[in-house]
Amino acid sequence: MKAIQLMFDTLKRDYLSPYEHTDVSTPNFKRLQQKTVQFDNFFAGSLPCMPARRDLHTGRYNFLHRGWGPLEPFDDSMPEILKSNGIYTHMVTDHKHYWRDGGSTYHPRYSSYELIRGQEGDRWKARVNKDTDVEGIEHLPDAFKTRKAESMSQDFVNREYMEAESEHPMARTVQGGLEFLEENKDADQWFLQIECFDPHEPFFVPEKYLAMYGLSQDDFNGWLQYSNDDFTNEKAEVMKGYYKALVTMCDEYLGKILDVMDEQNMWQDTMLIVNTDHGLLLGEHDWWGKNIMPVYNEIAHLPFFIWNPQLQVHDETREQLAQNIDVPATILEFFDLEVPEMMKGKPLRSVIESNDVIHESALFGNFGNNINVVDGDYIYMRTPYPGREDYLYEYTLMPMRMNSRFKPEEMKGAELDHSFSFTKGAGTLKIQTSDFMAKSHQRFGNKLFHHAEDPGQKHPITDPEKEFEMIVKMKQLMEENEAPSPLYAYYGLDHIYSVEDVRQEQEELNREKEAVSEHIHFADYMVKEGYLTLIASIQDARKKEKIQRDLQEISEQHKVTENHLRNWLQQEMDEKDRAFLTYQLNMALRID
């Protein structure tokens, strides 16, 4: 038997014609729909990129125990299990996170792998003066430039070596997969993972696809700012148009895989899975990007297609709940291998074959941010409880972040913890942390949506009985997945045991929300007047703490004169330090 997993990063289901009526040209996804079983209630698990890939290797949620990081010594890795049982595994990808600190143990699990260079500021082509020599950097907003200038300047250098479509990372990635298929067309017992970083931003798109949407490469540099910016309609349509063009390019290269499967009659013995890790927001809910806002359906509700040659079921849909943790179990079962006891995901075979229900409900989320539960009809988003920041810990034996190691000062209070059965007798480091992707989710509050009737999540529901029902499901799943005990306190779940507890919590949180809303005019004033372009970059910790403390005191006074604010800023911050808030303060005080 053989299996191909074709994965795109950040693929929105509502931009694909099999799922939605859309103006995006995706004829090969429509062709794929006819060849496969399409899942209509498929969800992410852990977010974003590498946390999702740990789910896809291990069949377990990453986000309950730690943030972005490598595979752990005790993890069961699906590709490695295949390899250990005589099934050749190969990955070809342009996903640059595989060769950063936080992804460094994933690709060696395969029998062989090919890493395609050049995506998203990958440190590929060398240029000493790239920050000054690359056109366009000087026009970036200061706050965005502070966070992204190095990646952007490197990306613009890399693009100079990818002028032809054939040199584009997606083209080279799929070509690498096609070469594997040609080389091994007479072989058996293999698994091929073709993983494209597109259509993840930056939206770097050959002119051919942009022209289909009336755009050119001069219209936008492709770098999306994660924000709640109110872009002009024209700019918003340009940014969405670039994403559409990139999705159409994904469709074109999907077609090349389908062509080979047709030509070589691979439908008889080769499983095909086409999936993604997550989506993103392109103006929906007044947000752009991911990570910094609740995990709305545009991010969490995913496209998923599967062909199982053993079942021969195609051109059908399934409504049963499934998610990314089910993929490794599905592939292992296909190759007649035992699914490890610690995998919580379930094989999809029974869903395809007999419409079985394998999950009554499921969790998804980012480490440290909102925790979410979905069942057949509802989605409940729960925010970290105010004042419980000290209850957040990472549990890991691989202390690395996305692109760095843990700092020595973070490790000083680390303890060895033996709480979990899935670590196979090994202890993990228990490290208190405040390092996660968005620290201001409390402003959104808890949200309940009727997913079936309101898939756009435009109408939050106030229903204490239903909220308590979803909390019970959430806590049950947390227990089944061995969520750390402090996490219940972190989310305020340690005091919810009845519907009355939910009502009391809602009243308390509403009082706090009203108190915070009194300060909104202060944030709006500061941002509107442009005084705080401010601080993600102050190096002196004591000075940073003083500025934040003073800022809080000023906000509590409510009345701020222009001269007061101007004088305070001039006294407290020199020119080098002005990279603080336009974004941070507005986000921290914004009530959605």
UniProtKB/TrEMBL annotation:
Residues 544-571 form a coiled coil. Residues 6-336 form the Sulfatase N-terminal domain. InterPro entries: Alkaline_phosphatase_core_sf (IPR017850), Sulfatase_N (IPR000917). Keywords: Coiled coil, Hydrolase, Metal-binding. It comes from the Bacteria. This is Sulfatase.
